[in-house]
Amino acid sequence: VPATLIDGRAVAAKVRAEVAEEVEQLGSLGLATVLVGDDPASDVYIRHKHRAATEIGIRTVDRRLPGDIAQDDLLALVEDLNADDELDGVLVQTPLPDHLDELKVLAAVRPEKDVDGLTPRNAGQLLLGRPAHVGATPLGIMRLLTEYKIRIAGARATVVGRSNIVGKPLSLLLLGGHATVTICHSRTEDLQRQTLDADILVAAVGQPGLITEDMVKTGATVIDVGITRTDAGLLGDVDPGVAGVAAYLTPVPGGVGPMTIAVLLENTVRAAKYRRGLLPFA
Ligand code: NDP
Q1: CB 56 within 8 A of CB 263
Q2: Phi and psi at residue 176, in whole multiples of 5°?
Q3: In 3D, which of 221, 222, 220, 254 has the Cα closest to residue 235?
Q4: Is the CB of 205 under 6 A from ligand 1?
Q5: Which residue's C-alpha comes closest to atom 3 of ligand 1?
Q6: Could you report the per-residue pLDDT of 178-188, keeping only the tens digit for each?
């Protein structure tokens, strides 16, 4: 039996409908994005985020800065956005050009507005088991697992990739859900040994076809986060042959990608609630 494809577009539509209702109740909401330089992939992501926000009535501010901007000028802009009372969420699109200290810039975002969960405060809260803002991609993956009633507690989860934006926070969320978590990366020896053990296997690398069917346990749930642009279209990290062994699989496109956008809107609503004192910012 071929794997059930997890329909990220359908779940994302459901999330957007929930968020739209909340936006209506909360009144005016604002989300700012900051893009440094002209990376084409980042430009596409930013445009998707703005379109989705606008569609449900969230006002957006699109700040674009030259690739050679000085760090202090970028920090000053972030301070302006922090202080702007019309803005609930502030997102600095990564990766930043090499001459900038990315962690320092991300840390400058006011934690209540940090919808990507990349400030030390939010990252630390997640580590300590009291998550506040957590990035949209890891949260979106957790929502997909919940929607499809995939068992997390007690399951063996292997996450391939350890970035601050996907691999690490997702591993912590799975751990918080009582999975037994293994984190793999470019220095992992014998990757197959780790992946074969997984009830839930997540690939967040950016290498098309990295995960082949001989690396997947029969009946596993496979989440493909990877996005690589090729002439043949978008490719994930998971080889199509995996559909022959997995029970559930997220397609690329149409799996994790739409969830990232929808959950960013959800995070903006949460930011608005923090700022208005409707939710305690712990
Ligand atoms: P990074 O490049 O920051 O991280 C990639 C990770 O993969 C690193 O931890 C790296 O290890 C690891 N890695 C590299 N090669 C191997 C290998 N051969 N075996 C095992 N691990 C390996 O990427 P991101 O986390 O930002 O993104 C990952 C992918 O997900 C990309 O394709 C990106 O486009 C996509 N993405 C998709 C999103 C969506 O909404 N669908 C959202 C965000 C990202 P090491 O740490 O040792 O270098």
Answers
A1: no
A2: -60, -30
A3: 254
A4: yes
A5: 163
A6: 999 999 999 99
Q: What is the pLDDT of residue 282?
A: 78
Asked if residue 267 has its Cβ within 6 Å of ligand 1, the reply is no
CA distance 155 to 140: 19
pLDDT of residue 205: 98
Those residues of the chain that have pLDDT short of 50 are none
Assess whether the C-beta atom of 164 lies below 6 angstroms from ligand 1: no
Burial classification of residue 32, based on how many CB atoms lie within 10 Å of its CB (0-12 exposed, 13-18 middle, 19 or more buried): buried
Type of residue numbered 208: P
Q: What is the pLDDT of residues 221-230, one digit of tens each?
A: 999 999 999 9
Catalytic residues: 49, 93, 116
If one residue of 11, 49, 158, 166 were mutated to test the ligand 1 pocket, choosing by the most ligand atoms within 8 A of its CB, it would be 166
Nearest C-alpha to atom 32 of ligand 1 is from which residue?
A: 206
Q: Over the chain, what HEC string results?
A: CCCEECCHHHHHHHHHHHHHHHHHHHCCEEEEEEEECCCHHHHHHHHHHHHHHHHCCEEEEEEEECCCCCHHHHHHHHHHHHHCCCCCEEEECCCCCCCCCHHHHHHCCCHHHECCCCCHHHHHHHHCCCCCCCCHHHHHHHHHHHHCCCCCCCCEEEEECCCCCCHHHHHHHHHHCCCEEEEECCCCCCHHHHHCCCCEEEECCCCCCCECHHHCCCCCEEEECCCEEECCEEECCECHHHHHCCCEECCCCCCHHHHHHHHHHHHHHHHHHHHCCCCCCC
Residue with tokens 């949260």: 139
Q: Whose CA is nearest to atom 16 of ligand 1?
A: 186
Q: What is the pLDDT of residue 249?
A: 98
